[in-house]
Design goal:
The chain has 124 residues and is an alpha+beta fold. It contains three helices and five strands. The protein has one domain.
Length: 124
């Protein structure tokens, strides 16, 4: 199966509440990352891979001129990347048309366990 096929089955979108919870948890736990309970392999990923369509969705939002990433931490204490659109005033786009929630994306394919050999990841 190709990378595109693997990624198309992942729903990257998360709610604003989940994004707040994850980024808050990350900020609260960042100092404790190297305590024994956080030293397990996989807590800090080497990378996350996302389907390109999430970035297309982000940048096609009205007023979006950039994409911002945040670090968050999921309920398993694994560090995750979150992405939101950014307007020309450097504000996160959190509310879309008609006051509907704007896109916030997460849940990429983490490395480890699924990694690609690359000069950016020579530890494979």
């Amino acid at each position: 199966m190709t990378l595109s096929n693997n990624l198309q089955h992942i729903n990257h979108e998360i709610s604003l509440e989940d994004a707040i919870e994850m980024t808050t948890r990350f900020r609260e736990e960042i100092q404790s990352m190297f305590k024994p309970e956080f030293s397990a392999i996989g807590v800090l990923p080497l990378s996350e891979t996302f389907n390109k369509s999430i970035f297309e969705d982000l940048v096609m939002q009205p007023e979006c001129v950039a994409v911002r990433s945040y670090f968050g931490m999921d309920e398993n204490n694994e560090v995750r990347l979150l992405f939101v659109g950014v307007d020309e005033n450097n504000n996160d786009i959190l509310v879309g048309i008609d006051e509907q929630p704007a896109y916030i994306f997460e849940y990429g394919q983490r490395c480890p366990p699924i990694c690609a050999a690359s000069p950016l990841n020579p530890q494979i």
